[in-house]
Write a structure and sequence with these properties.
The protein is an alpha+beta fold and about 140 residues long. Helices cover about 45% and strands about 20% of the residues.
Length: about 140
C-alpha cells in the first residue's frame, strides 16, 4: 500500500503529482467468478482532484481542468488482483493527463469538394428514381 503513496504521477512538464493525492475506492468486480468475485473487492476507482492536487503548475492546471474537468475519475477491474488494478489505474491516470496536455490544432472549416457534391447529387437522383418507381400512376387507370 505504501508503494502507491510513494509513486509520482508524471503528466509531462509542469505536472508531477504525488501518489498520495489520489484517493481510492474499492468494490467487487462484475462478471462471473462465484463466491470469490462476490467477496473480493478487486475493482479499483481512482479519483484525482485536479483543482487541489499538489505538483501541478497553474497554467498546466488551467489546461487540465479545461479538458478533464475538476476531478479525474478512472475505474479498472481488468484483473483479479487489487494491487495490479491499482497499478493499471495509475497508468491510466498518467495517460489521460498526458493526452490532455497535447495542444490540438484548431480546425479550419472547409466546404465539400466537387466529388463529394457530385456523389451527393447522384445519390439523391437514385433515391428519387427509386421512390418514383414505387408510385402508382393515378392518371392512367
Amino acid at each position: 500500500m505504501a508503494g502507491f503513496e510513494d509513486r509520482v504521477l508524471d503528466g509531462g512538464p509542469g505536472c508531477r503529482i504525488p501518489g498520495g493525492e489520489v484517493s481510492w475506492r474499492f468494490g467487487p468486480s462484475g462478471g462471473p467468478g462465484g463466491q470469490h468475485a462476490n467477496r473480493a473487492r478487486t475493482r479499483v476507482e481512482a479519483l484525482l482532484d485536479l483543482t487541489d492536487a499538489r505538483g501541478i503548475e497553474d497554467d498546466v492546471r488551467e489546461l487540465l481542468v479545461g479538458w478533464l474537468g475538476g476531478t479525474l475519475h478512472v475505474t479498472v477491474d481488468r484483473t483479479r488482483s487489487q494491487d495490479r488494478n491499482r497499478e493499471l489505474a495509475l497508468e491510466k491516470l498518467e495517460q489521460r493527463l498526458r493526452e490532455a496536455r497535447v495542444v490540438r490544432r484548431e480546425r479550419r472549416p472547409t466546404r465539400p469538394g466537387r466529388g463529394a457534391r457530385e456523389r451527393r447529387l447522384k445519390a439523391k437522383k437514385q433515391r428519387s428514381a427509386r421512390k418514383s418507381e414505387r408510385r402508382r400512376d393515378w392518371g392512367r387507370e
